[in-house]
Amino acid sequence: MAPRIIVIEHEEGTDARRLGDWLEASGAQLDVRRPYRALVADGSLDAPAALATIPTLQEFRAPGVGLLVLGGQAGPVDDDDNPWFPAVRELLAASAQGEFASLNVCLGGEMLTEALGTPVVHRVVPQVGVMTGRLRPEAADDPLFSRVPAQFPVVLWHGLQMKLPAGAVHLVDGTDAPVQAFRVGRAWGTQFHLEADTALLRGWVDGAGGLPETLPSDLTVDAVVDPVTEAEPELEAAMTPVARAFVGLLAAEV
Length: 254
Fold this sequence. Notes:
The chain is 31% helix and 23% strand. By secondary structure, the chain is α/β, with parallel strands linked by helices. It has a single domain, classed as Rossmann fold (3-Layer(aba) Sandwich), CATH 3.40.50.
């Protein structure tokens, strides 16, 4: 039986993209949940139907089932507009307690910190584009991040910033948002986007009508996105082992 990864996608344009491809290539089956598509006739969100798409803890008690929580524009406690958020945070708290394995990207990582009682903070200037992540010594025996280079490119797109929860293992730093990846129990959180490629970033720019206003006025879209294209081979080489290792964890349970 193949490992199954339940994927929570919070909005259009924030799909698992190449991360999903790597997970499937490693032998996993993806079960994508899209609560934001639960709409009523006038186009407004059907909150009960949206919440019904979110898995229960019982679903993760089957062997080989894990969770991937993706990014989005919302804040991790914007529950009024995203009524499924509290249920997701409850799942992440259970993952941190060792109930099942989860990988949580950007907004997903921020939801994990909030689930553990550590609020995110607002940045004065968002981080966007390619920067450099660095493994910390604590990552040497980590089941996922011990497999990546000591220094590797990361794609960032965030205006909020994670802080390290109590009891967490700090795995990756390297930017002025120092908590780039951490682990608590069987839950991993990243500030960077493992899934992001050039097309995804351009979609985010188009969807937002341009770059965030608080960035320097002379910064262009091409200046942000073109380095992602150039870094694609290194990005794939660094992130593919993380995806493969996550599937391996789940496969060991089957």
